[in-house]
Design goal:
The complex is a heterodimer. By secondary structure, chain A is an alpha+beta fold. Chain B is an alpha/beta fold. Among the domains of chain B are: 219 residues, P-loop containing nucleotide triphosphate hydrolases (Rossmann fold); 99 residues, no CATH class; 127 residues, no CATH class; 80 residues, no CATH class; 32 residues. In chain B, the strands form 5 sheets. A 7-stranded parallel β-sheet of chain B has the order 15-16-14-17-18-13-19. In chain B, strands 3-2-8-9-1-10 form a 6-stranded parallel β-sheet, with helices on both faces. Chain B has a two-stranded parallel ribbon with strand order 4-7. The chains are: A alpha+beta, B alpha/beta.
Amino acid sequence: MTDKEIEEELQKMFEINYESLKLQGGHSLTPEVRDAAWNQVLYYFKKLRKVVAEKVSKTEVKLTLPEQETPAGRRFTIEGIVDIVTENEETWMYDIKTHEAGFIEKHKEMYEQQLNVYAYIWEHLQGNKLDHTAIISTVLPSGLRNALRDRPIIPEKVKSEADKWNPVVPLAFSQKKIKETIREFGAVVDDIEAGEFKPATPEELDTADGGKVKFVTRYCIMCDGRFSCSSYRKYVAKTTGRSQADFKRYYSVYDDETAQTDYILSNLNMDIINMEFDKPE
Amino acid sequence: MERTPPPIEDLWKEAGFTPNPEQSAAIRHVEGPLFLAAGPGSGKTRVLLWRTINLIVYHNIDPEEIFLSTFTEKAAAQLKEGLLSYLALVTNKTGKAYDIAAMSIGTVHSICQKLITDRRFAKNRTRQHPPALMDELAQYFFVYRRAFWDSLCIAAGFTDGDEGIQEVNLFFGKLYQGKPVKSRHKAAVELIGLFNRFSEEYLDPTACTTTNKILKKLLKMYRAYMEKLDNEKKVDFSLLQKKAYDHIAAFGKSGSIFKHVIIDEYQDTNTIQEKLFFTLAAGYKNICVVGDDDQALYRFRGATVENLVQFENRCKEKLKQKARRIDLSTNYRSRIQIVKTYTDFIELADWKNPSGGAYRVENKNIKAHSSDARTGVVVSEKKDAKFVYRDIVEFVYKLKQKGKITDYSECAFLFPGIRDNARVQGFKDAFKQFNDDNNLTGTDDEIRIYAPRAGRFLDLDEACAVWGMLLLVFDRPSYGAGISGELIYFREWLKNCKKYATEICAKDKQLANFIKDIKTEIETANNDYKALNNTIAKNGWQGKTAYKKSMSRILAETSGLSPKAKRSITNHFFNELVEFREKEGRPFTVDYIVNRASSLDWSVLDFFYQLTGFEHFRKMIDLAENHGDEGPICNLALIADYLSKYQDQYGPIISAGFLQEDKFSHSLYSSFTYALWRLAETEFEDKDDPFPRGRISFLTIHQSKGLEFPVVVLGSLFRKEREADIKEKTVRKLLHKENEGEPLDRISKFDTMRMFYVALSRAENLLILPQYTRGSAATDEFKELIASSSFKELNAFDPREMDKAKKHDKKVTAIYSYTSDFMLYKRCARQYMFLRKYEFTGSRTQTMMFGSLVHQTIEDLHHLLIDKREKELPYD
């Protein structure tokens, strides 16, 4: 199979998965979101073919910690999914994520906690060998994303941007804090079942991760629940000084003009605009 | 090192499962066809689950070699969770890991989709591109749209679309004053039903003969419909199954792919599915069907209960093997009296087949596991309906007051049909009256019901408010004076929504200002559109003129243009693209540029979410956040779902070009909303509606399939007998099956009996039956049942006889994902609520589906590469 054939096959698999997810969820993705997903898959292959993709020995391994009990006595099972690569007698565990690499770097502790639990299941419960763990971020860096938006596409530019990209974030793992994490997990399960759904606090929204992007920018902007969210509203009132009577701007859906350009580009359909509607009967 | 698994009994013990001898036998059955006649509440899900575990763990069946279909995605998800959890239990003891990702488990539809693209069925092992699947709504629009409708009619030999409408309606008996109605909507709905039935019967339109002139044309329409879909690489739900069958049938060795074919809810399968199952099971002959003919509900969708009743014969005929029948007849759900009631009830009809045997699986011997012989069934006093409603409502209230139910959601009211049902309205009114009389209205003790499908969904308060706001922003198109029929009522509905929204705005100045701002925005877009078109005319360009980068300067200088439109035209990135497309010879059109510059920044779904920021809507979400009534938020989530379906049809962009000539408002109101409004009249139900906390659910019996409730009120004991469906008659005639299956004149009775059997068997502790004096009080069988059973009356029933309803978790086990549950919740519990608990459809990012799509495709890539590595030398 040539690279081109693999890419063609990959495209097919992508479509198949898209159609079946559409059936299961009853929804479609807008074209630009679909394209973004496709680019992540394609560049995962291009970038990590040699290092990971071709060497994966076990893919989408479901790691399951069954029959746990929450503080309130509910039974639950923890599930996680990883890929395993064994090479030169060394075993790597990869968790592929659609989060940005930079973000993962800055939240190492959070991801380590996760991988510790996975490693515990893999090593101790299932008795496998493990030498390294790492997170792979499939999110393309902005340089590469921009290079792909260029028309015509300049292959050298794409290549140099792709070369700069480092999607693999190695993380150390240990057996520390496993019990605490599982206990915390159980408490979350209890809270979910009890219907505890308070938002993050306005202060949390205002906090930046690793000194750069604020919680509100990273998460709230993507959340359709923000308009009705007490924390978001307080945050906006506080930071913009706008009275609640004037939140036209705060209500603006999209501030990012680049994103809006892409959005219109892939969704504006002249066939629909030129459609003829006859009077209903 | 892998260790030997412990005996399965040890696993059962650990999972808290003690199978009875029949269950155990079913679980351990491995070779040959198996027929599990599973009565209500007989633990069949556990049996299916453990049987699959047994196959995988103790008989080394690769999950990939198992085909397991369920009736709903929810049921499949539940089974998957159970499998994962118990297989992990084994893994932790043996070190052997299991992967069920490649297992064919899901609804028949989703497995069919998988089969079409499954490499194992492809001759050269390359996958096919999957056809795009149209859901029911998309199928409706596909057929209903004027242009396609006309072409279908002409292909069939009608003079035009209008003649087609009348002839189709004539065929289906849709008459008004003796003449066929002129409704394209009605014709399309009927025709779709027939097409689906054709597909499910695997009917070849070219091979059928008929003397009926219209039917001849309908067969031609069906052909034209299939051709059109083929050309566009689309399928509907019914054709998906046909496609899958054709695909595997063409392969030749289809019987040797799955070692085990397991089908749940077999009584509700159809002809094409049966063909599919037997083809897949032809090699190993391990077909296991689970079901209960007495609970067959879906004939109106083409299901044939004969698949189950005749299963043993079909095995002999098709597999040359005798099926083993095991009856799962112990009911673990209900009190003795309830079990006795529904088993007595079903026997009251005459099921005899004149040519021997019966139209029903006989000798089931269903018995209760419970030893609780206290009262389980009560009847109301025989009174005028409105007093019956009142008594039952009061009784339910008492049960809650006395702590016999802790939440109203433990009580369900079931009806044969919810829509336009006088009983439903009667009970609704009685609840309202009761709340008012006892000063409960507005208090925490108010009894609330949840019945989103009673009456139109669009008539619900939440829907009227949202559509009203839309109407304030985008006014409805004028339908002129000469309209009639449904359209008049629809226009009334539009007017009322707008009026309602105006009232809401009058109380909320912020909201009123917001709407005003939005309207200004739309006006700006319209002005930009006009101004740009002036410039275009002045320069002698046309809409279709190829757009050149050099034109952008002229357009941008249009006087009176808004800064936003100007920016859009001068956008640097975009102009590079313009240049590139110019060079490539696929330039944009001038029209495109104008629409781009004059499009709004938001879609209807965005607008909806913005609305939720205002008090009227916000408090509905606050309620859920504060442990209150979940009804409103559930309805809001359904609205978001509908609006996203609109966007699936017409795209999310609202451009000024689309706003001209009322196009947009026609698309949103006259086309989409009107279709919803009208389709709601058909059996457009069976949605996975939620059961909100704090509310009594009003359900159709169909919706209650597979569910159970501590207290069940059966709201009506009557359903009118109807003539056999014309589709049924048509198909039987075309396929020369007149003498097969249940006699046409007994179908209605059988279906009514089965439906009520399902209803009666949903109750765990208490089943309440009304006794009305007048009107359609009860079917003969119910009258007989009540006359011969000496049920206690409501007022003689001592609630102490009832135990407090146990809140029992029905889930075998609950699986939580580390990332999409735990981490998401920790980040923001409210966002978790939005996405995972109430499943609001995302307006832009649709994170969930995005992540799944990327992950699944990468997984497939890995499989491909692993496969390649195992088979070939490394390339390059």
